[in-house]
Write a structure and sequence with these properties.
Elements: H1 10-20, E1 23-27, H2 32-43, E2 49-52, H3 59-70, E3 77-80, E4 83-86, H4 88-96, H5 100-105, E5 113-118, H6 122-133, E6 138-141, H7 157-162, H8 164-183, H9 199-223, E7 227-229, E8 232-237, E9 240-244, E10 250-260, E11 264-266, H10 274-277, H11 281-284, E12 294-297, H12 301-312, E13 317-321, H13 331-343, E14 347-350, E15 352-361, E16 367-374, E17 379-384, E18 386-389, E19 393-395, H14 402-405, E20 429-431, H15 443-458, E21 472-481, E22 488-500, E23 504-513, E24 520-532, E25 536-545, E26 552-561, E27 568-577, E28 580-593, E29 600-625, E30 628-644, E31 649-657, E32 660-689, E33 696-705, E34 708-719
Parallel strand pairs: 1-2, 5-6, 5-10, 6-7, 10-20, 12-13, 12-18, 13-14, 21-23, 22-24, 23-25, 24-26, 25-27, 26-34, 27-33, 28-32, 28-34, 29-31, 29-32, 29-33, 30-32
Antiparallel strand pairs: 1-3, 3-4, 8-9, 9-10, 11-19, 15-16, 16-17
Helix pairs in contact: 6-15, 8-9, 8-12
């Protein structure tokens, strides 16, 4: 090969290589020690530059120059961050002493910070705190540009200030109003005075709570020695950032590494009056006045959620939809949600898009005329006090200096293009959160990505954030019914979780029924878990029935677990029946487990029967085991009979074992019977085990029956 190009003398050329590369290895292709060092850096995911000097014509001159610089004649000759480390033995010694990654991650003394994070949302805060906890000098820049209506907020990002947190609190306020009306049916007497909701009291309470969260984040940064800069960050060079505060004061700081976590803001269309006279979710939660008659433009979950709680607060609310509800979601369920909202009194304007907004009256709220265009070309004109836009969000990637350093973005959407390590086209600049192209836009994902990035940068971790089937949490409810003389109908869901590398968590409920003279129908779900590296967790319920004169129907699920490295956990229930005067039918399941290295565990129950005056039929199973590499264990029961005037029939199974090297464990029960004069039918299952690293765990129940002369139908599941 041609000789190494020398700019000036050889020593200066070598120093140029050393200064421009974080890890510089002078190597020979035939040297096994050189290969050993390169393999070590590869396993640690450390980028390095290797100059194979035996392929260059001036190898002798290079060796002489290296000897002059270091006093070392052999290869490999390794430099990290401009400092001479030595040969293979020196590198291996650093690694065995757990000091190699510290040496690699230690920045040059020319930089003020090891890491600067631009953006103080969930992802940015997570990355900054994790890096500081690992001993790095960190600064975090956060600045909120006011909305067109002048709204700004504190540290914490969208979710805390203008997203999930205030939305849930306003939703709770709405539910309390509905519960006030329901309480009258349970004996509460409020007289003739109609309750009055005070917007300002609710808003102030919510904003006080959010303010406490903002302060809490600042305290956390201070406790971890993270420098908080309330300034707008712009990247000038790969290692220099300009910060401008609200007074216009400019400050420049230098850093080894940059993480961009600037998030998104609501999108506005290009029509007259939209920025002057409309608001977005950026403004709603701190709005200084009650919005009054409101138009929510858009069919996203943000639009529907806001419309839902505004309607629940007693406001005249309309949703304007361009085409379909909840694009990207299951459309059958989206249509059911629309039908449910319309039945509840929500107004919809379908297949229409606003063309202009005009102010008719100033005030708090004011009065505005919205002119929209329908699909057939017809003009739709209506007046509102408030117009809320929720038609999508755009990444905050313009104006932060990405073009100054060559960070590549997707020209179609403005999102930053990153590899699997969240690294951009500039090696020392990373991006996390909603601004990353092609990744899930969820708060838990951003938090996890920030933590894992910091650990890879400063703790030698290799763990990547899993963006495939990861941490999608969906709470999806369709509730449709035609009730006659129904006392109370309640659909209640409590869903709380802390996910780490969770593939998919889905809570799906389809509830359709036609009830006549039903006293109480309750669907209640409590789902709490802390998952670590769980591939898929699915809770699926399909509940369809036509009940006549049924006293109580209850579907209750409590699912609490702490899974470690579980591949798939599925709880699937299909419950279809036509009950007439049913006495008692109970399906009870208790499922508790901690899995270790179990390949497949399947629990399957098919229960079909036609009961008439049955005294007592009990199927009871207790299954407890500790499985390690279990091959195959099968418990199968087939129970068919025709009982007449039977007082008690009991099938009881207790199965306890400790299996080694068993691949599959299957518990399968098929129970079919025709009972006469039996009072109670009970299916009871208790399944407890200690599993770790389980490939697949499936829990499936199909319950179909036609029962006569019974009063209670209960499906009860507890999974811990």
């Amino acid at each position: 090969m041609p000789p190494l190009t020398v700019n000036g003398d050889m020593k200066s050329t070598l120093q140029d290589y050393i200064s421009k590369n974080k890890v510089m290895i002078f190597s020979k292709t035939t040297c096994p020690f050189c290969q050993k060092v390169k393999d070590l850096f590869k396993t640690l995911n450390v980028e390095y530059t290797a100059l194979e000097i035996d392929k260059l014509d001036n190898m002798s001159a290079i060796q002489a120059g290296l000897f002059e610089l270091t006093g070392q004649k052999t290869v490999p000759n390794v430099f990290i961050n401009g400092n001479h480390i030595g040969g293979c033995d020196s590198v291996l010694k650093l690694h065995s002493d757990n000091r190699l990654m510290v040496t690699v991650s230690t920045p040059s003394t020319a930089y003020e910070y090891d890491l600067v994070v631009i953006g103080g949302g969930s992802g940015g805060l997570a990355a900054a705190k994790e890096a500081a906890q690992l001993g790095k000098k960190v600064a975090l820049l956060d600045f909120v540009k006011p909305s067109p209506q002048g709204t700004a907020w504190g540290l914490g990002g969208t979710c805390v200030n203008v997203g999930c947190i205030p939305k849930k609190l306003m939703h709770r306020a709405s539910v309390l109003g509905e519960e006030h009306e329901d309480s009258k049916k349970f004996g509460w007497d409020y007289g003739e005075t109609k309750p009055n909701h005070k917007w300002d009291v609710m808003r102030d309470g919510i904003q006080d709570y959010i303010g406490s969260l903002n302060w809490g984040y600042r305290v956390q940064l201070r406790e971890k020695d993270v420098t908080y800069i309330n300034g707008y960050g712009e990247i000038l060079t790969p290692h220099k950032i300009k910060s401008t505060n609200k007074r216009g004061k400019v400050q420049e700081i230098t850093t080894e590494t940059i993480v961009i976590a600037t998030g998104e803001r609501p999108r506005y269309p290009d029509i007259p009056g939209v920025k002057e006279y409309s608001i977005t979710s950026d403004d709603l939660f701190s709005l200084p006045y009650c919005p009054g008659k409101t138009l929510c433009v858009g069919a996203s979950y943000v639009s529907l959620e806001c419309a839902g709680f505004l309607h629940g607060l007693g406001l005249d609310t309309t949703v304007m939809v361009r085409s379909i509800l909840l694009r990207g979601f299951d459309q059958q369920m989206a249509e059911k949600i629309g039908i449910f909202m319309e039945k509840g009194g929500m107004k919809f304007v379908w297949n229409a898009v606003p063309q202009k907004i005009e102010r008719l009256e100033e005030g708090t709220p004011g009065r505005y005329r919205v002119t929209a265009l329908g699909r057939e070309g017809q003009e739709i004109v209506e007046e509102y006090n408030t117009i809320l836009y929720a038609i999508g969000r755009d990444p905050c990637t313009s104006g932060i200096g990405l073009e100054n350093v060559g960070v590549k973005v997707n020209p179609k959407n403005g999102r930053v293009i990153c590899d699997d390590r969240e690294q951009t086209s500039v090696p020392n600049i990373y991006a996390i959160g909603d601004i990353v192209d092609g990744k899930l836009q969820l708060t838990p994902v951003a938090i996890q990505a920030g933590k894992l990035l910091a650990r890879r940068l400063y703790a030698g971790s290799k763990l990547l954030c899993d963006y495939v089937n990861v941490a999608t949490t969906v709470l999806y409810i369709s509730f449709q019914c035609d009730y006659v003389n129904v006392a109370t109908t309640v659909l209640c869901i409590s869903f709380q979780c802390d996910y780490v590398n969770v593939a998919t968590t889905v809570l799906y409920i389809s509830f359709q029924c036609d009830y006549v003279n039903v006293a109480t129908t309750v669907v209640y779900i409590s789902f709490q878990c802390d998952y670590v590296n769980v591939a898929t967790t699915v809770l699926y319920i399909s509940f369809q029935c036509d009940y006549v004169n049924v006293a109580t129907t209850v579907l209750y699920i409590s699912f609490q677990c702490d899974y470690v490295n579980v591949a798939t956990t599925v709880l699937c229930i299909s419950f279809q029946c036509d009950y007439v005067n049913v006495a008692t039918t109970v399906l009870y399941i208790s499922f508790q487990c901690d899995y270790v290295n179990v390949a497949t565990t399947v629990f399957y129950i098919s229960f079909q029967c036609d009961y008439v005056n049955v005294a007592t039929t009990v199927l009871y199973i207790s299954f407890q085991c500790d499985y390690v590499n279990v091959a195959t264990t099968v418990l199968y029961i087939s129970f068919q009979c025709d009982y007449v005037n039977v007082a008690t029939t009991v099938l009881y199974i207790s199965f306890q074992c400790d299996y080694v090297n068993v691949a599959t464990t299957v518990l399968c029960i098929s129970f079919q019977c025709d009972y006469v004069n039996v009072a109670t039918t009970v299916l009871y299952i208790s399944f407890q085990c200690d599993y770790v690293n389980v490939a697949t765990t499936v829990f499936y129940i199909s319950f179909q029956c036609d029962c006569e002369r019974s009063y209670n139908s209960v499906l009860y599941i507890v999974s811990v």
